[in-house]
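Feature request, filed as a ticket because there's no other form

It would be nice if the structure record came with a short human-readable summary line next to the tokens. Right now we just get the raw output. Example of a typical job, pasted below so the devs can see what we mean:
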Amino acid sequence: MSTFVKLLPRTTMDEVEQSPIHADPEVEQAVAPSLHTTGWTLESFAEEQIRGLVRQVFLPGWPRPCRQVVFSPVDPGSDISPICMQVGQTLADEGSGEACVVEACPTARDEDGASEDRLAAVGGEKRFGTLRDLSQQLSGSLWFMPRSVFLGGNQNGFSTAWLRARLAELRLEFDYTVLQGPAAGAGSEAALLGATCDGLVLVLQANATRRATAQRVKETLHSANARLLGTVLSERTFPIPRAIYRRL
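Raw output as currently delivered:
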């Protein structure tokens, strides 16, 4: 079995049923022609899906480019950190500027003393802006900001006024911000983030996220004036075709 990410059409959220969301047959149809391509791998296919998402949303984006985008799962407990990190890495690889993946989920666990250790390591000397100095540099143009740094003294959540000010700070220090948001189906934080940023991308879990739940989330986002940029299907698994096994 293999897993990858697939960007779904905008119309997907409008077609709701009382059943889990299943990946459609188009996936296998899209993969099949690539089996005869030299060097094709599932990993390269997944990377191409992420690049397509980045180009659709950020570079240059539709109908206008976005600089700060929230990625939020529909279901509580879904781990979207790998997707957010892949998006951030792709932005950095494109060479379009400094990108930061921000842990913006109020209920996420912190790394014990991680941000304090980084601040102590530079001896209080500022190399960049305050937020970037407290973040972890993963590569030349990619940074990771843990929850403790993003929230600062607002460990119990954030208000609209505080969030707008924080996002303004991020715009000054990073060209692109990928915010790993909380579950959109639990609480109002994801909708607030989506309304304050340039928009939100919903992450649906294949064969787990229920269409009725996803539709309710969409209505909540609409009521909050949050711009829904698209939906991503994650954890889609399927057997590797026999033709590939024969080549191993």
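Something like this underneath would help us a lot:
Strands lie at 2-8, 68-73, 99-103, 136-137, 142-145, 176-180, 199-205, 228-238.
The chain is about 40% helix and 20% strand.
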